[in-house]
TrEMBL record:
SUPFAM superfamilies, per the entry: SRF-like
GO CC entries: nucleus
CDD domains, A to Z: MADS
GO MF annotations in UniProt: DNA-binding transcription factor activity, RNA polymerase II-specific; protein dimerization activity; RNA polymerase II cis-regulatory region sequence-specific DNA binding
Protein name: MADS-box domain-containing protein
InterPro entries xref list: TF_MADSbox, TF_MADSbox_sf
Principal localisation: nucleus
Keyword Transcription regulation applies: yes
Annotated Gene3D superfamilies: Transcription factor, MADS-box (3.40.1810.10)
Compartments reported by the entry: Nucleus
Any one Pfam family match given in the protein's UniProt record, by short name: SRF-TF
Domain MADS-box span(s) in chain numbering: 1-61
Coiled coil regions in record: none
Length: 197
């Protein structure tokens, strides 16, 4: 027999409701964890039992229930006061830079202008620092590469010199042996003829 569709309605019996809550809470948290794993989203759940006990789930261990409560209360307070909620998703444009969404007409006071200027100067400073770090790293890599390359070249020159010495000694030995085996050029030619025939 397959699964049956259960109509969603309030369970009147208190004991059955508590049992159902316990089972469904675990399933809900499992589905949330699966969704986080599959999509990479950060999800936080707050579920309150029929008895009033809160249960929470968070995909990130750094997000605590107190932090979520604080952020929620601040957001509600800002909405009630009519303030624009300063959310990162509203500030970041498609390419990821907040200054692309900057509207100069919205800067209506010296205070706002100074704040934007300071933010841009901070960005400039951070970019400059990062540039210096990358240049220093590149120089370190170049120095290490040069040192390694110089060491390899020196070793190759050393090996080449040793090979030349060995080759010279080998040729000298061969010449001495050839003179012992073939005292004259004529005997060498006779030996060649004998080999070729």
């Amino acid at each position: 027999m397959g699964k049956r569709r259960i109509e969603i309605q309030k369970i009147e019996d208190r004991k059955k409701r508590n049992v159902s809550f316990t089972k469904r809470r675990q399933g809900l948290f499992k589905k949330a964890a699966d969704l986080c794993r599959l999509t990479g989203a950060d999800i936080s759940l707050l579920v309150i039992s029929p008895g009033g006990k809160p249960y929470s789930f968070s995909s990130s261990s750094s997000i605590s229930l107190d932090d979520l409560n604080y952020r929620l209360n601040n957001t509600i307070k800002n909405i009630k006061e009519g303030k624009v909620v300063d959310d990162e998703t509203t500030r970041v444009s498609d390419d990821g830079f907040w200054w692309n969404n900057l509207n100069p007409e919205e800067i209506d006071s010296i205070k706002k202008l100074t704040a934007v200027r300071n933010q841009l100067l901070d960005v400039k400073e951070k970019v400059s620092q990062r540039k210096q770090e990358l240049l220093a790293a590149a120089k370190a890599i170049d120095i290490a590469t040069c040192t390694t390359t110089c060491t390899v070249v020196e070793k190759m020159e050393e090996d080449s010199s040793l090979l030349k010495d060995d080759l010279g000694m080998l040729l000298s030995d061969c010449y001495d042996d050839a003179q012992n085996w073939f005292p004259s050029i004529e005997s060498l030619h006779n030996f060649e003829s004998w080999l070729l025939n």
